[in-house]
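Listing S7. Sequence submitted for prediction.
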Amino acid sequence: MIFFALFAFILAVQLLHWHVLRRIAPDALRPWLPWILLVLHLPLILFFAMRFTGNTTHGFGHALRPFARIGFYFQAFTAMHLAILAAAECLWWWRARHQLPPIETEAEAEVEGHDPVRRAFLRKVAVSGFGAATAGVTFGASRAYFEPSITRLTLAFDDLPREFDGLRIVQLSDLHVGPLIGPSSVERWRRLTLRERPDLLLLTGDIVDTLPEEAGPFLAAFRDVPAPSGRFAILGNHDYFTDPVPLWNNLKASGWHCLENANALVERGSACLAIMGLQDPQATNGRFRGIRFGPGPSWISASRDIPEHAWKLCLSHRPDDWNLARLGGARLTLSGHTHGGQINLFPGLNTARLLGPYTRGEYREGRDLLYVSRGLGVVALPLRIGADPELVVITLKRG
């Protein structure tokens, strides 16, 4: 279902782009526009068909990925180009409201069927917008696939047990391994993680883009990454787009502890650190067809049987569930999901606000703290603008 919905959206966007372009394109180019669009999108169409009918992680489907990515980039170009053209239309409308644009003669306007000056203006915007959109896609792609930012935080808590003073945590989030994120990106994240020498390695969901078998590069790369205090993971909403059981099993076989409404204890001497994990709400609507893979987030289950003296840390894919983590007694909650907006075209306007009030970075409520990672991968479009990928390194301090 999700493949059909995404394909329908792509088709609708391209039809809109074609409709706009054919109105302002030179007459000689108009007959070629449908064929140009078809050639650009044929690999992407074939890739989506193979994802619906079979595995794209091997064979022809795997070989098709680089060519399909060209189609993804063109989707990003189309979205930016349409936004520029829409802004130009709004500008022309505003200008017309205040001062009617001149036309050469009424006869010429009648022959053209519309204002020729307006058409010439939109043509110029389309040409300049082509360059601007191309530059935007190039910049966004470079930010998405180059080295992620390393965010190093020292977080102090007055009730942190002395035994955990200096504990070093690396948080991975929103990898989205799949059509847009391949083994080379995952290997880069592995090298960065090894360099940070974590005591505790935490994964806050969206491991794959859609299919459980896409986790292969991640499982291979992080199978032997040392973390003396353990490796713990929860699933994100994308991990529930299909049956998550194979992903659970493969994570466990690779040495990860899955905490879906569960907890695990890390002990140092007489001190205890409890790591809780909240299940993502998508578990109640798997495959977007109401298939229940779980009950959704439950702080009662996640905090069950934790010793009273334990200091609590919670993994919650969605930052909006911070209130549930706090009900479970979590002093520190780590989340992802928002990608920091991923594509923020205008300074001060974060697209992640559409998902809720917690977009990225650090938030405090009394003595409790939430950190929302921008994540490492990309979803839908292979771009990041104003929201670089992020590897989070946290050092806990008592004080």
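Caption to Listing S7: primary sequence and predicted structure tokens for the chain studied. The chain has a mean pLDDT of 85. The chain has ten helices and twelve strands.
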